[in-house]
Amino acid sequence: MPIEMPRGLPFSVDTWSVRSQMKRHHFLTHAHKDHSSGILTHSSFPIYCTGLTKSLLLNQYPQLDESLFLRIEVGQSIFIDDPDCEFTVTAFDANHCPGAVMFLFEGNFGSILHTGDCRLTPECLYCLPEKYISKKGIQPTQRLDYVFLDCTFGKFRQPLPCKRSSIQQVINCIWKHPAATVVYLTCDLLGQEDIMVSVSQAFGSKIFVDKVANPELFGALNLTVPEILTQDESSRFHVFDGFPNLYKRAAVKLAEARANSQPEPLIVRASAQWYACDEEYSCTGSEGKLRFDTAVKDLSGVWHVCYSMHSSREELEWALQLLAPRWVASTTTPSCSAMELDYVRKHCLASRLTPGDPLWKLLDIRVDDDDVSIQCTGKNSPVVERVPAEMVGGESPTKSKNGSFSKLPCTLPLYEGQTVTLFGRARLRIEDSFEKCGQLVSDKKGRELKVEIAREEESDKVKVKQQVEHSSVCGEELSEKDGSKVSSSGAASGSSNNLGENLKRYYRSMNVPVPRPLPSLLKLLDNHKRRTKRRF
Ligand SMILES: [Zn+2]
Q1: pLDDT at position 379 over 90
Q2: Which residue in 244, 262, 482, 501 has its CB near the most CB atoms, within 10 A?
């Protein structure tokens, strides 16, 4: 699902929620349903998108109010006079599906490219303003501050064939099966129209789409490629639903033909899904999935051609080298985080940012220059990617000579639902990490006070135990009297053997390593044990 924009920005992109509804401007990159989910309940004026995206959306949701939309077309720039920060937005072709665009936002907040879903090619990228493009290995004259990048296939290491090559493979596959009197094309997804157009042209035949059984698909194709549609069921080419139960339905079609002594139909699926994920019926095994230059038949009898509307990892890396942005986040979750990309690992390090860098504001993180502490203000803000390992570890933040941070006291916010490495080893959910970050900063003095009280009340074993449990679960840093900092997540001296079995079980149930408690608290526990022994 698409992610929310940082709180400091006055616009949302592809998100329709209570939070995004509160933004003053809304942008829709394209009409795929995962990008318009919630639009019926959380839409508000104005929604900027291309005219085609608007028409496709109204085809899907006829009850949507047409007057909510404002048009922006490829190559068009619109100046938006927002009361807080005026900005300009420009639309660029995303090479994804009909009507799909990327948005470039430029304003006081910096420059942000939001790719939506995209298949980045040199043609797409060289349409962006020249100042943002590297030349001959030299960084752009002006760097993009932030790229929200479609990382759907960011883990896909094999080079994906270009769309034209994939379409040719579909045509070749059909040529090789002249006996197939019916050809089923699983091209029911917005963005697969070019396949149908090419097949229609190559074989001189229109394609049957059942208007009654599939009115939404017919409506969409009628908007994008009306010239290739027919209601004549005798056409050799039929559109076949790709979802759900494609393989079972395909097997039934083939079995029917055999049972009736008819030629087997040809079923072709042009998608990257099978290559990236579908394990069932992969049959020809992983070997088949490594063939990207020809159609491959699976166990159920479906022929696959790798056709991708998203960029491969190779294409993403190349695009990032060309754009050299300062920060990158994935537009979708949870498929792949931007931190998994080599460019981001090497170049997008928060430790390189000075405290005054405007990017902190964009990242929704407050940096306090006085005491070099950093507070995560965006409790549920899903805008920041996994931070480099060097920023995690529970050490005190230190400031280098040039004023940049070498360590942060806590991890930065991650996408909702993802696990996060907090203070080196403890793995908690995002909400937990924010709770702890907030507490670390705001309640630090209160905690220190509590420790002092606990020391004075050393006879109260229960209180001490609670203190150990609470401070250790939080993975927080507590200041000792002499000012030295001790981390309860493992940096402290002491052994986890001192903890009771129940407490250890508790940690394990939380998927948190059993910590070593603070030395001062161990001392308190030891004293208590000694006194108890003496009593007996
Ligand atoms: Zn899409």
Answers
A1: no
A2: 262
